[in-house]
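Write out the 3D structure for:
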Amino acid sequence: VVLSLIGGSYASLGQYPQALESYQQALVVAKEMGDRITKEAVLSGSGAVYQALGQYSQALSHVLLLICSHVKYSQKHPNSRSLFLFPPSNSSSKSPMSRMRR
């Protein structure tokens, strides 16, 4: 968690290489500890840094990893609150996104 916060601090200061280095270290630790929340926060933060650097394919890759991680967790825990505000797939209620598509 601390390495993730350090990465965010570097990113806020515009020191992107240092931010990415901290995020990479934080990702390794989070994976080793099985800390999904920190892993997803790191993927989000590093994706934002890559976007700021204009490295859009890297940014997209990190965001897709974040989404996959969250979807995998949501499938195992269907009653959990979703980061993306979608109801569980067996829910009869409409998602906010489906209402926006009309």
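The helical segments are 2-12, 16-33, 36-52, 56-76, 96-100.
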